[in-house]
Amino acid sequence: MGIGMPGLILILVIALIIFGPKKLPEIGRAMGQTLKEFKNSTKDLTNDEDASKDKK
């Protein structure tokens, strides 16, 4: 029960209408950087947990 291809295309078209073609790459870049930072933080937290378990 995912979005599917038609839903994804509809979301992209609506985003293009709302933000315009010039702002869309900037927004995508910002979202990508945010996601990268989130993944790195999550990875660091899991590594910290593993390290503390190894010490016990």
From TrEMBL:
**Keyword Membrane, does the record have it?**
yes
Keywords for the protein's UniProt record, in alphabetical order: Cell membrane, Membrane, Protein transport, Translocation, Transmembrane, Transmembrane helix, Transport
Query: Per its record, what are the GO molecular function terms?
Result: protein transmembrane transporter activity
**Record-linked Pfam families:** TatA_B_E (PF02416)
Stored InterPro entries: TatA/B/E (IPR003369), TatA/E (IPR006312)
Q: How does it sit in the membrane?
A: Single-pass membrane protein
The record's subcellular locations are: Cell membrane
One cellular component term from this protein's GO annotations in UniProt: TAT protein transport complex
Alphabetical GO biological process terms = protein transport by the Tat complex
Query: Which domain of life does the protein's organism represent?
Result: Bacteria
Q: What family does the Swiss-Prot or TrEMBL record give for this protein?
A: Belongs to the TatA/E family.
Cite the record's note on assembly: Forms a complex with TatC.
| HAMAP family in the cross-refs | TatA_E (MF_00236)
Q: What does this protein do?
A: Part of the twin-arginine translocation (Tat) system that transports large folded proteins containing a characteristic twin-arginine motif in their signal peptide across membranes. TatA could form the protein-conducting channel of the Tat system.
List, alphabetically, the PANTHER family matched: SEC-INDEPENDENT PROTEIN TRANSLOCASE PROTEIN TATA
From the Swiss-Prot or TrEMBL record, give the protein name: Sec-independent protein translocase protein TatA
